[in-house]
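Input structure tokens:
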């Protein structure tokens, strides 16, 4: 059992993590709720009205007239940079996000929860290769799980065989930009913004002969109303996350058992897990984590398919 001071320190660390899971650092105004370590036995999560995820933002504005109006509306003037974060809980319920973030997602085709509360969604960000993606793909294949990979242009060009394997084994491959910029920094220049996505699409098409899924993971977790608008105008859904942990530092990895505990403690209906493909801990933990999530009653889904 953690002592009180240790628990407070852990909350502060988790607060920083939620702000930096997309590889950025911003202050958080609402501290996350303490999420306890996993117990030896985790009860199955029952999908009830109290544990169902928040409605898909697109479902809240699904009428044809509202969709037509949105497609023809002028770009928003607001390009204030926000960093994605959420407030976890200890009840295996979908976490809360700031009201403004929820409003943006509903208006500009974004999500942080998957569409099916009976499933969880493993997503892997891949900006460079660290020798772990083959192990991750092996574990997914062994467990008959399909995931969603978000890749950059440089990753595609440097690792064409891995990208082709992702496609061949039924995984969804989404867009993580060409050069991993903060997208609001380009949002005032529509052509420069579009090039970030189109260059990645073109590289993927050259390597695989197929079209990239129309899902986009904003680099660094940074967004604005204008950047989300431009992403939607290019035909993409912006995909954030409802779980992340400190896994992106290749030379400072948590022990695999801690990663398993975090993944199982953080489960909730429709969870979108942000995991980094450079993480040896994620690769080591994946078999046990998948088994544990299945024991909790979840299946696995992909996004953008």
């Amino acid at each position: 059992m953690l002592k009180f001071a240790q628990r407070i320190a852990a909350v502060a660390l988790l607060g920083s993590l939620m702000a930096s899971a997309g590889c950025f650092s911003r202050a958080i105004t609402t501290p996350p709720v303490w999420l306890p370590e996993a117990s030896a036995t985790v009860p199955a999560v029952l999908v009830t009205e109290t544990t169902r995820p928040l409605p898909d933002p697109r479902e809240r504005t699904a009428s044809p007239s509202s969709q037509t109006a949105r497609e023809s509306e002028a770009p928003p003037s607001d390009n204030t940079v926000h960093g994605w974060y959420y407030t976890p809980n200890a009840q295996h319920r979908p976490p809360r996000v700031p009201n403004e973030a929820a409003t943006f997602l509903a208006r500009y085709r974004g999500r942080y929860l998957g569409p099916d509360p009976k499933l969880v969604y493993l997503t892997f960000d891949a900006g460079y290769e660290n020798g772990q993606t083959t192990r991750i793909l092996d574990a997914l294949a062994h467990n008959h799980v399909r995931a969603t990979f978000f890749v950059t242009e440089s990753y595609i060009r440097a690792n064409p065989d891995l990208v082709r394997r992702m496609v061949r084994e039924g995984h969804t491959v989404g867009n993580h930009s060409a050069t991993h910029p903060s997208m609001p920094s380009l949002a005032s220049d529509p052509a420069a913004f579009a090039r970030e996505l189109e260059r990645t699409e073109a590289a993927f098409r050259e390597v695989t002969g197929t079209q990239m899924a129309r899902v986009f993971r904003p680099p660094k977790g940074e967004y604005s109303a204008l950047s989300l608008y431009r992403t939607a105008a290019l035909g993409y859904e912006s995909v954030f996350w409802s779980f992340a942990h400190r896994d992106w530092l290749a030379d400072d990895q948590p022990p695999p058992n801690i990663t398993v505990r975090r993944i199982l403690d953080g489960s909730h209906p429709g969870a979108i897990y942000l995991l980094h493909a450079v993480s040896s801990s994620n690769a080591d933990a994946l078999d046990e984590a998948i088994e544990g999530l299945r024991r909790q009653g979840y299946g696995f889904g992909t996004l953008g398919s």
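The radius of gyration is 18 Å. Residues 190-208 form the longest helix (19 residues).
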